[in-house]
Write a structure and sequence with these properties.
single chain; globular; five-stranded mixed sheet; 15% helix; alpha+beta; four-stranded mixed sheet
Length: 199
């Protein structure tokens, strides 16, 4: 990761001139296991380590490209995970009928941007490392949202897998630029969702 003076120029958007994700902070059980997975297996360089004051744990940062970081807290007194509530349940996710729904304000998954030409090889490397993962999914606008084969309507191809703490991860490869017709749905309202559940 480059220092502030060496940062590449970023595209900035929005009313607050945002240039992407600075870092996403997650919580892990065992920092060494996390370092072994993210730096050792995935190859994300560990770029910053912090010991929290008062023996309250650690905060480590991994470079995931373009000046963005994935960070982890390790709290000695962290509550146990709540799969199926705070995150998708890794024990059921690989079932084709698995439930993807998680709680409001939860972190459902982290998707890493990869090149479309490399996604098959990346999946094979995960399998060789003993990481359980999905087949490559071709996301399209069909009623199911996933096609068996890659075709011109596919906008992203991805493979999902889990880290040692059950955090869902994704390698995602955009296959085309987004177009104006990709924004075609009215945002759902909480009241509408409540009415659907009541029926």
């Amino acid at each position: 990761m480059t220092t502030t003076s060496e940062q590449p120029a970023k595209t900035r958007v929005g009313n607050f001139n945002v240039g992407g994700i600075n870092h996403l902070a997650l919580v892990c059980r065992d920092m060494q296991q996390t370092v072994d997975f993210y730096e050792g297996l995935l190859g994300f360089p560990l770029v910053k380590t912090i010991e929290l004051p008062g023996d309250n744990g650690q905060h480590f940062f991994f470079d995931i490209g373009n000046g963005d970081c994935l960070a982890f807290f390790n709290f000695p007194n962290a509550p146990e995970p709540a799969p199926g509530v705070a995150s998708p349940d890794p024990n059921t996710f690989f079932d084709p009928s698995a439930e993807l729904v998680t709680a409001i304000a939860s972190m459902n998954h982290v998707a890493f941007d990869v090149d479309p030409e490399e996604i098959e090889e990346m999946r094979e490397r995960l399998i060789e490392a003993g990481v359980r993962c999905t087949p490559i999914l071709n996301h399209d606008d069909s009623p199911r949202g996933i096609a068996r084969e890659n075709h011109p309507g596919v906008f992203v191809r991805s493979v999902y897998f889990y880290d040692p703490d059950g955090i869902m991860l994704e390698f995602a490869a955009w296959t085309r630029a987004m177009r104006p017709d990709d924004v075609r749905h009215a945002p759902a309202r909480a009241a509408n969702a409540a009415a659907v559940l009541a029926d």
